Amino acid sequence: MKTPKELGYRMPPEWETHAATQLHWPSNRETWPGSRLERVEEVYLQIIGALHKYEPVLLLVDPGVDQNRITKKMLDHDIDLSAVHLFNLPVNDVWARDCGPIFIKNETDKTYAITDWEYNAWGGKYPPFNSDNALPEWFANAFNIQKFSPGIVLEGGSIDTNGEGIFLTTESVLLNKNRNPNLSKKEIEHFLVNYLGAEKVIWLKDGLAGDDTDGHIDDLSRFINRNTILTMISDDPEDINYRALTENHKILKKATNPNGEPFKIETLPLPTTKIEGTTVDGSENVPASYSNFYIANGVVLLPLYDERFNEQAIRLFEKYFPDRDVIGIPCADLVWGQGSIHCITQQLYGLKL
C-alpha cells in the first residue's frame, strides 16, 4: 500500500481555510476539580463565542453531560447555535489537539485525508484515554474521509508545520520512551516524512516546566507564516524556563529551510508560569505561553496571561495577521489544567456539516 507521501499528501499549515474547529466540552472532574470546572466552562464560552462567528464549531459532548445546560449557557452568551454542531460522543478530556484527527491534503486534487495516530495521554499519565484515541476513526467514518493509520504514538501539539514540509518538534516528546520506546530519531522522522509529507524536521530540546506533555512544541515555538517562527524567550536567568528557552532559541537562529536560507525569528517574553498552590499533578508551574494561539478563518485566538506582555503579544499578531482579527482571551483558568487554546482546538478540513 502506498504511503500518503507517495500519493501526494502533505499536512497543510494552520492558516489554510478550515471546514470547522473541533472542541470538547469540559467534563473531566479530575482535570477540573471543584469550582475549576465552572470556571473553565466560562473560558470555553468566550472561545466559542469568538470562534463561531468565523467558522463552524464541532463540539463533542460526553454522554454524561447535560446537553440542555450547555445549550442554555451558549444562548446566555449570545452564541448562534446554528454555527455550533453538537455531537453526543464519549470523550475522556478536552485535549482535541492531541487526540483529534490530523488532516493531510493531496497537492494534486486538493482532497483531504485523516492520519490516525495512536494517543496514550502523554505516556499513559491519565487513563482512561480509549475514547479519545478512537476519535480520528469516528471522524473518518462519520464524514466519509479516507484514513491512514501510522501505528505509532503522536500528538498534534507535538508538531508544527509551515505547510511546505518543514516541521518543528521537540526531542523531549518525540524521543521520550513513554511514546515509542523502540523507535530511533531517524525512524520517527521517517513516519513524519511518509505520513505528513515532512521534508525537514527542526528538533528543539526541552519544553516548559509544568507541561505534563513532556514539552509540546505549541508551548514553545510556532510558524506564523511560511518563513517566520515565533518563539518564547526569558531574559531572567533565574526563571525556571530560562535554560530551555535559550537553548531552543539558539537552535532556531541556526536553522535553515531546505534551500539553506535562515528563518525570520520573532520573540515574545514568556508570561509568568508560577502559580499559587499546585495543579492536579502537583506542579507549581503551568505552561502559560503566547505560542499556544489558534489560527482560524478570519481570526487568531490569542491566550492572555500577563499584563506586562499581553499588549506586546497582541501587537505582534496584528502585524503578522493583518487580514484576520486578533482576539485575546484570558486563559489563566484554562492553563491551570496544563493546556491552552491551541491544545483544546483541532482544525478540520473537507467536512460537510
Give an overview in words:
The protein is an alpha/beta fold. The protein is 27% helix and 21% strand. The protein has helices spanning 36-51, 67-76, 96-99, 121-124, 130-133, 135-142, 171-174, 185-196, 242-254, 310-320, 332-335, 341-344, and strands spanning 9-10, 20-24, 57-61, 84-88, 102-106, 112-115, 147-148, 160-161, 166-170, 200-204, 221-225, 228-233, 264-269, 294-296, 299-304, 325-330, 346-348. Helix 1 (36-51) links the parallel strand 2 (20-24) and strand 3. It starts with 8 loop residues before the first strand and ends in a 5-residue tail after the last strand. The mean pLDDT is 97.
Distance between the termini: 30 Å
The top level CATH class name: Alpha Beta
* CATH architecture call: 5-stranded Propeller
Which structural category fits the helices and strands?
Answer: alpha/beta
Number of H- or I-type helical stretches: 12
The number of distinct β-strands equals 17
The strands making up the biggest β-sheet line up spatially as: 1-5-6-7
Largest sheet descriptor: 4 strands, mixed
Q: Please indicate the percent range of residues in DSSP E strands (runs of 2 or more).
A: 15-25%
Kindly identify the CATH topology.
L-arginine/glycine Amidinotransferase, Chain A
Mind telling me the CATH superfamily name? L-arginine/glycine Amidinotransferase, Chain A
Mean pLDDT, all residues: 97
* CA-based shape: globular
In the predicted model, the low-confidence regions spanning at least 5 consecutive residues are none
- The rounded Rg comes to 19 Å
Q: Count structural domains.
A: 1
Helix content: 25-40%
Task: Give the H and E element order.
Answer: EEHEHEHEEHHHEEEHHEEEHEEEHEHHE
